[in-house]
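input
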Amino acid sequence: MSRLVIVGNGFDMAHRIKSSYFDFRDFVQTNDPDLHALLLRLGGSEFWWDFEENLAKLDLQGLIDRVQDEQIWSDRTGATYDNRQDLISAGWVRRDLRSTVRQLTGDLSENLRQWIEQIDGQATTPIFTCFDGDEYFLSFNYTSTIEHLYGHSDQRMFYIHNKVGDFARSFNWEWCFSSNEYSSYFNNPNNCGQDPRLDLIYGHAAPTSKPDIPLAPVPGYLTDYDFNAAYTELTNAYNELYDFFDSSRKRTCDVMPKLAAYLQTVPSLDEVLIIGHSLSRVDAPYFERIAKWHPAPLRYTITYYTEANRSTTVINADKFIRPCDEVEFIDLSQPNRLTR
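output
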């Protein structure tokens, strides 16, 4: 029989790796102050409490209002068809919003990559004695802590959201945003010369609908604007901004075939050990898929980070634990209680 070990960020934190969202915040604040200020302005001080989920809650409408207010608009009631000043202003709005999208996508991903490279390898001392070398590992982390400390074969490892060493090359952002045949990289990542399968996967689990595009994107005193070139320019700008909302969703459906292929390599699974994962909503589909993949009863051992966190972990686990399964919850601060 086989045991599947699933590790989350709590696994790295238990090894004293500074891998919390707040550690990432501190890195961004030092490494990219402009990006840090942007996230603070759009996400507020609560943004870093749940970095991934809060990507869906950024104040995009507030950003639009601020950028538009910085421009000069026609004051002629009923202005129609390609007013030059409005078109110039709309062009500046689109440029500013594109710059923001670049920060929220390319700059944020690059900062994440640099941060993971910096913390990877920080752990020096193994703390778990429950591994016997016969496990299969599914890691939600971007670091190589398991191989580094426990020497497990990479052939039995599956990094469900990839790891930092899997990066091939950086996005060519200047090409993306200057190409005459511009197409949002969100809809076709290969336009920017990057294999998306090698990217670090992160994001929110918000519903698929985008935020509403303003009905009157140009200041309201412009009343007849349907065919105005400035209106078209602004609408395109908003669509590009809201592409960010879609692109920042964690697309678990795209990862499922890889997970299914990996599970096929795990023979006679009878035990699942989950270490340091909050079982949050954004990753819930993966745990549900694992449970459905194996119809026979499973024995789960699930850790929680603090006593205050225990009840949330139990509630989240109930979403995929079946009546036929056994489950035990163990405090992660007591790693010796984890046995084979």
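quick obs: The CA atoms of residues 211 and 242 lie 7 Å apart.
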